[in-house]
């Protein structure tokens, strides 16, 4: 990979992705919102191709795109894992390096301290 | 979070996300392209769950996935905010840490200096 | 952009995006999976607006969202470029800064060393 190293500016915000069964996306999103663990959740349908224990899988899932404080990421991961129907759910965190300041502030206000 | 600290390689490129009303996605995308502020915009429908001023909201939106130079991110944020119909639009920036070199170069060429 | 500099924690994992013709998404995803270059691929339809050699383009594409080891990113880029029908395909890499530990471990196990 390109070698020009540079620490990314931090906004205190992150995006968390998780794939879930379509039947559970609304429920999981609303429970995380009610716990003030995330400020907003976008849901979009995806087709997921992967291997599970050697078997090729081709599933229709919903991708949850959750916006929250970076400091809450570990707690969101633990809570979502506890609600999630899969044995090993995909829950990953991506950094947000900039944004519209009032929106970044809104995410902070909408999520627990 | 995992503590192995590592500055990410930088590519000079970023991805900017914004959620917009479906009726405005094409217009906003084309205006940013015409101003050479972004090289490419992907548009995909999402369902958005969030609270606004204490009210639970459940909206159909379009997610704009914009690819541009990192150095243009602040300008894209300001310009998009000026065109956007929401009071506090979601406009966030994610880092791109590597990519197909000719594509990264194309993004640089397609956007203003 | 905000100036508070902070090296992001690294997980050894990344997400790779590429836009492809809808007719090729399944084939390209399965070939990368078979080569153990990626652990999982989500596919979602997008509308892409951009300019190519001065011409405004408005295409229906599929976005491939691939999860893999960061150490494999360059190889995935080269292999996908070799299979991809476009002259200059979009292939970009985003960092994953945290995640559900068993899932991060699964991505490592499912992809070649």
TrEMBL record, chains A, B, C:
GO biological process, one term: response to metal ion
Single GO molecular function: copper ion binding
Gene3D superfamilies: 3.30.70.120
Pfam family, one: CutA1
InterPro entries found in the cross-reference section: Ion_tolerance_CutA, N-reg_PII-like_a/b, N-reg_PII/ATP_PRibTrfase_C
Similarity field: Belongs to the CutA family.
PANTHER family membership: DIVALENT CATION TOLERANCE CUTA-RELATED (PTHR23419), FI09726P (PTHR23419:SF8)
Protein name in the entry: Uncharacterized protein involved in tolerance to divalent cations
Natural source organism: Methanoregula formicica (strain DSM 22288 / NBRC 105244 / SMSP)
Lineage, opening ranks: Archaea, Methanobacteriati, Methanobacteriota, Stenosarchaea group, Methanomicrobia
